[in-house]
Amino acid sequence: QVQLVESGGGLVQPGGALRLSCAASGSIFSIRALGWYRQAPGKQRELVALMSSDGSTNYDDSVKGRFNLSRDNAKNTVYLQMNSLKPEDTAVYYCHVRLSRWGSSVVNYYWGQGTQVTVSS
User: Fold this and answer.
1) Which of 61, 64, 112, 117 could form a disulfide with 95 if both were Cys (CB 3.0 to 4.6 A apart)?
2) How far apart are CA 29 and CA 101, in angstroms?
3) What is the structure's pLDDT at 65?
4) How far apart, in whole angstroms, are the C-alpha atoms of residue 87 and residue 12?
5) The pLDDT of residue 28
6) In angstroms, rounded to a whole number, what is the distance separating the alpha carbons of residues 16 and 73?
7) Burial grade of 78 (CB within 10 A; 0-12, 13-18, 19 or more)
């Protein structure tokens, strides 16, 4: 069974930076897409950044130019570098991966446990 473990959240001042990490473990798999979503209290979960299997990354307009998604294949880890943070970035951030077992066409969705990011002075 696949598990996603997130880390890197915390409290940061406006204009500061954080790097979130998401490490995957479990069965052998093929990554179809991966990225990050976030959810603020009373709001729907929204896309932050998503990398598709073709290598392209889609960023929400609110974070474009400030956030950067990257991955380390050797560590089975995806990162979200967040720069120039704003109070409106405050939310629980969730790692998201779409996986298939090798040799399978079935795509399964997985979510991390969530990590709190608070931007405040």
Assistant:
1) 112
2) 4
3) 97
4) 9
5) 67
6) 27
7) buried
Amino acid at the residue 48: V
- φ, ψ for residue 74, nearest 5 deg: -65, -30
Helical segments of the chain, H only: none
How many Å apart are CA 51 and CA 55, to the nearest integer?
6
Residue-wise pLDDT for 48-62, tens only, equals: 999 998 889 999 999
Burial of 120: CB neighbours in 10 Å, binned 0-12, 13-18, 19+: exposed
Q: Which class for 96: exposed (0-12), middle (13-18), buried (19 or more C-beta within 10 A)? A: buried
Distance between CA atoms of residues 77 and 75, nearest Å: 5
CA atoms within 13 A on the CB side of 117: 31
Q: Rounded CA gap, 34 and 43, in Å?
A: 22
